[in-house]
Design brief:
Blueprint lengths: L1 E3 L5 E3 L5 H6 L4 E3 L4 H8 L4 E4 L12 H9 L3 E2 L2 H11 L3 H5 L2 H13 L7 H12 L3
Parallel strand pairs: 3-4, 4-5
Antiparallel strand pairs: 1-2
Helix pairs in contact: 3-6
Length: about 130
Amino acid sequence: VQEWAEGKDIRISASDSMVRALRKSRIAIQTVPQTTYLETLSADHPTICFWNPEANMIRQDLQPFYDGLISVGVLHLSPESAARQLNAVAADPQAWWQSPPVRSALKAFRENVCLTAPDAIEQWADFISEKIPA
């Protein structure tokens, strides 16, 4: 664990497992739209995401769910915007995360972008079986 920002309790973890690191943190910052942001959102851990929309295209049919995350401050399209959000919620990330607008946006996002059903493996197997002829 490396300390960052003099006088601040901010740490960057490169060696902890993600689950262990999340248990030690009040908020996660995700900088690319890859698996880890889906994992922290699915785990219901307060998360601020930011990435360059020109370098990371979103499927058009999923854009409304990403727009929902933007509207409640979960997703940002610049590091400056993400930093302002972090400063705004740093004192109590859970209060922001549990607010009705954030809960609503997260619910819609998870239901349409994240596959978190208890039978997810079976759903994937069925999907793949439909797409690959026997």
